[in-house]
Structure formats: C-alpha cells, structure tokens
Amino acid sequence: MRLLKPSISIVSTAPARRKNGKPGRKTKFTPELSRRILRLISKGIPVSHATRACGITFQSFRNFQQAYPDFEDKCRNALSAGIRRRVEIVEKCCRSQDEGLRLRAAQWWLTHIPGAAEYFSETRKIELSGELDGRVAVLVWPHHAPKDITNESNDSITRAP
Predict the structure, then answer these.
(1) How far apart are CA 30 and CA 28, in angstroms?
(2) 1.10.8, 1.10.10, 1.10.287, 1.10.357: CATH of 31-120
(3) Rounded to whole angstroms, what are the CA distances from 83 to 55, 87, 105, 117, 124?
(4) Is 27 a residue whose pLDDT tops 60?
(5) 0.85 cut: is pTM over it?
C-alpha cells in the first residue's frame, strides 16, 4: 500500500487581478465581437438571437451597452437598419405582380407595424373573471368599444369617451 504525502495549498482571499492590475475577469467585449453583433442586428436578426450566435448572454449585451455608450448608439442604428431592410422587402412585395404576395405583404404590414397592429393584429388576449351572480365575464383584447354601450347596472345607454 502506498502512502500519500499530505499537500498544503494556499488559497488567496484577495480578488483576482488581471495583468493590468485591475480586479475581476477580463471582458469579452472586443471590437470583433462588437462588429459581429452589429452586423447580425443590422440584417434584422433579433438581438437575443444575435447575442446567442456571438456566444454571449443577453445580460452581457446589456452590460456592454451600459459600459460603452458608443456601442449602445451603434446598436440602435443597427436595429433601425435591420427594421428598414425588412420593411423595404415588405414594400417591394406590396408592389409585386403576384396578387397573393401583395395580399400577404399587406396583411403582414397591418399586423406588425405600430399604429396598425393594435387594430389588425391576430393576437388576442382572453380574460375570464370569476363567477358573479351566476354570470362569468369574458373580455377579449384588443377590442374596440362601440359608440353606444349598455350599462347593465341601470340599463341605461351611455356614450363611450
């Protein structure tokens, strides 16, 4: 049987230091990473997917934006460029000779562009209230109140604002 010699290891309680003397871990943020993220975002890739493709978390991305204001500005510009590219594609489809393509592009426009999406989106939210006097209230959002609403509490007609 072989006896092992006891070994002593010294663990430092001081924070880790980089070569430049600053505490903590070296940042992953590099000019190359910045270019890769900005390139993907400007192509219209959602930020969460662009960060994942570049090997960082969304939280790290947000931390980089806070630490580097210039990077945050470039991200906003890239996001605008990506949106512009996608809208140009939809607009081109709206001018197509193919009627089916034009209709589909128009439908996409109405359901995704702010200002129109609230009225034409296919997304619905349904809320159910608890039972009250044997009745259940069902609300479907988005909804548009008609000009005349019946107030069931006193059966009178009131005008919606």
Answers:
(1) 6
(2) 1.10.10
(3) 23, 6, 15, 16, 24
(4) yes
(5) no
